[in-house]
Amino acid sequence: MTRHDHAEHTFTSVPESVAAARTFISRTLQEWHVTSHADDILLCASELASNAVKYGSSTEGGRAVFQVRLDADDTHLRVEVEDGDPLTVPRMNRAAEGETGGRGMAIVASLASAWGFESHAAAGKAVWSEFVTSAA
Fold first, then answer.
1. How would you classify residue 61: left for phi > 0, otherwise alpha for psi between -120 and 50, otherwise beta?
2. How far is the C-alpha of 33 from the C-alpha of 116, rounded, in Å?
3. What is the pLDDT of residue 75?
4. N or C terminus of the chain with fewer C-beta within 10 Å?
5. Helices in 1-136 by DSSP H: which ranges?
C-alpha cells in the first residue's frame, strides 16, 4: 500500500511564525513517523519560512500570511512554503565574510535532495525542498 500524507497550515507573516511553522512541521513529522533527515527538513523549512516572512506575503483578511504544505509518500517528503510575492524569486547568494545572512538557499540546496520554486503570477510563488526519507 502506498502512503500519501498531506498537511498544511497558514501563518501570519511575522518573525515569530517561523518558530510556529517549525513546531507544526516537527509535530507532523512525528505523527507521520518520519525520522530520516528530520533535522535537515526542519532547518530547510525554517529557511523557507524566514524568506517568506522577509520577502513575500499574501494577504488574508487584511493580514500578511504565508502557507506551509507537507506532502509525503513512501520514499519522499516535500516541504513547500507559499507567499504572495511572485517577483522575488529565491536565489543562492554568497554572503561576504562577516555577514550573518544571505546563505539560506545555499543551506537548502546542500541539505535537500532537490529544491525549486513555482511562480503563480498574481498569486505569488511556492518555494519547495524535497527529501528522500527511505530507500527508493
1. left
2. 25
3. 92
4. N
5. 16-31, 38-55, 104-111
